[in-house]
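cron nightly-structures :: item 1 of 1
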Amino acid sequence: MKQAIKPMKFRQTLFWDVNPKNIDVKKNARYIIERVLEFGEPGEVGWVLRYYPKHTIKKVIGLPRVQLSPKSKALWSLILK
């Protein structure tokens, strides 16, 4: 049986433009994935990779206006191949 993944306590420095307590992991999935893959620490990246299905992360990375640097986009595209 798959164990439930605990919600992450988001850092203010990672989500500097909003109140991290108001982030909804379902409604704000794209925002969270973009921000964590670009600026997150290893534990935060690990949480994203465990919490969101691989196809969801790949979909976000493939969006035309994704908020990832070209280097980050290329790296994550290779990792999630």
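cron nightly-structures :: done
The radius of gyration is 12 Å.
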